[in-house]
Amino acid sequence: PRVSPAATSTPCCQQHSEEVCESCVVKTTLTAENAVEANKLSNNYKFGFKKWKSHVTARPWEDRSEIVKELYSDLNVIRGSGGSTLTCGNVLYLLLFGWWLWLLYSLVAAVMFLTVMGAPYGRLCWDLARYFLWPFGKVIQKVEVPKSHRACEVGVGESSALLGGPTPRRWVATGHWHRASTAAWLCLGYPVLVLAHGLVCVTAWLLIVLIPVAKLSARAASRVLLLPPERVLIRRLRTTEVPLEGEVILCCYRAANPYYYKYAVDGINVFAVNLLPLVLVTLVLGYVDSHNHLTGSAVKFSLALLSIMPLSYYIGMAIASISAQSNFAVGAVVNATFGSITELTFYISALIKGSREGNRCYAEVVKSALTGTLVGCVLFVPGLCMVIGGIRHQEQRFNSRSAGVSSALLFLSVGGVFAPTLFSKVYGKLVCGECHNVTQNPLGHYLCHNCHFDLMDNNGTLYYSHVQPLVYTVSILLPAAYLIGLFFTLKTHTHIYDIHISDCHMPGHHHSAVVHWSRWRALVILLLSTLCMSACADLATEHISPILTNSTISQYFIGVTVLAMVPELPEIVNGIQFALQNNLSLSIEIGNCIAVQVCMLQIPILVLFTIFYPTNFTLVFSDLHVYASMFSVVLMNYIFMDGKCDYFQGTVLVMVYFILLAVYFFAPSPSGC
């Protein structure tokens, strides 16, 4: 949306009278383009709702910047002065595609000359060979055939005015497709060149910055190569020359554009579009090659994990679209139901597999992933956003009151989640797997390994009579506290977010909302993405066992890094985009909301799941998880105390996160793995 950025406190609209704007002078004013975007912006500031940066509606073309307009423009616009064509991107095109396209067109030209009847297409291929070697600063036009040629094509009787005078272009096309040279071209030349351009198109599209080359190849294969040779004119443009006759089909000045990371297809970012085929490859390879004949478990695990990233994006986009087009109740239900579906599908799949195999290692990996998500969202996500946002803005301010609500809930949730762990440390019996007498004296010191607090002593009396009831109590209280937090921030104390969605429209903003995804379409995509997410999570847990057993890296480290942070990458990208727009409040809320949902929703759901499907998951964490989580929450509250920050404070959070990762990296594997 075209907003007055969300971190500035300004009046609603300068055109409004002072009386109208008195109520919102002290509020942060956001100017949305339409009602749907206004609803999405409002949802971004609601606790428990998914924060989404991208548009859910199509932006008016006239309101876009010139840089963005260039991304979506066709390659048929002639500029008065295109500048020098000798750029790094153009040279990259020459090295990747230009030289072998020139060679291929030259070979096809030779073949067409050998057929004799295909000589016109041979001359066309020779001209196109020189064009595709360096297409920059050149133009391909569709020219009109002289009238004398038309008469020869259509015949004297057919062109008589008494027959109604059919349009010349139509009859020229008919004559073109009935030529012998055209038949030879369609059999010998065209298929080879279409395959080559298809390869160029796919490769350039996947590289993203070379999308202009993909457009160039697609237009060449679909239009240029299907025209009669005499209607194709290739010429070099001079700086002062503008062709006046004929339709311009291709005119390219740059092969690369670094701003194509902003490109979207039907509202979907190009990165998510490019990663979607990876999901299909993962599912086909995972379920067809179940015995690992084609690839090993490590490859399938990596593919399944990477496939989670685009699926997380589609789930987030669908949730934001449905919430923006629905009332508050529907949006709250959708966010509560599907907001944590990405993580929960993986955790539940891992617990089921561990229960079937009788392997406690899966439960420990799930605990590591939960802790890694908590620590990463408290330290790494806001820290990285502070660093990147601080590079552009010297000092950034955020709403300390709303951050204080999230911090209070974090303190409560961390205390509740780790209460059973602290209880077991106090009342549990310390059991060690192996002890050695260091002094050779029976009364001397002993060195013990693999020690843990046994909760199953005396037939599990301590666990079943004390720890388990405590776990169930905590699992009831934490969601209740989450609901109270929702009621506090969304009903009784909405003013703490200090947000006003202005209905003052800038010039050119009087447009009806054209949504990218309707509610039903978004719902279908949400359900399909959730289904694919479950399948990918199942494949990831199916093939993680060899990595856990054969890897020299601690299982703690695998859980807190790869399994915890990869599903959160779309959220991290959203946070960075908000920070670059000087909207650090939303960047911080993204991390805090995820951390709160981990403790207050995801963990109670896992406990509830273990009641109906017994697993090895118990709410007793290792000392390392407890210390890392508590220290992270305390440090975050200290940094956020004054409501302002800079890149230095962000660097502190990121460095502390990397220190904790180093601790996990060198830590021994948990017991049971």
TrEMBL record:
Q: How does it sit in the membrane?
A: Multi-pass membrane protein
List residues of the Sodium/calcium exchanger membrane region domain: 300-419, 522-664
Alphabetical list of Pfam families matching this protein: Na_Ca_ex, YccF
Claim: Nucleus is one of the keywords in the record: no
Q: Does the keyword Membrane apply?
A: yes
The residue ranges crossing the membrane are 91-114, 188-213, 268-288, 294-316, 328-349, 369-391, 403-423, 470-490, 522-541, 553-573, 594-613, 619-640, 647-667
* Keywords annotated in UniProt: Antiport, Calcium, Calcium transport, Ion transport, Membrane, Phosphoprotein, Transmembrane, Transmembrane helix, Transport
Any idea where this protein resides?
Endomembrane system
Gene3D superfamilies named in the record: NCX, central ion-binding region (1.20.1420.30)
Instruction: Output one GO BP term.
Output: intracellular calcium ion homeostasis
Q: Which GO terms describe its molecular function?
A: calcium:proton antiporter activity
Gene Ontology CC entries for this record: endomembrane system; vacuolar membrane
Q: Which residues form the Inner membrane component domain?
A: 88-138
Name the UniProt record assigns to this protein? VNX1 protein
Organism (species): Polioptila caerulea (Blue-grey gnatcatcher)
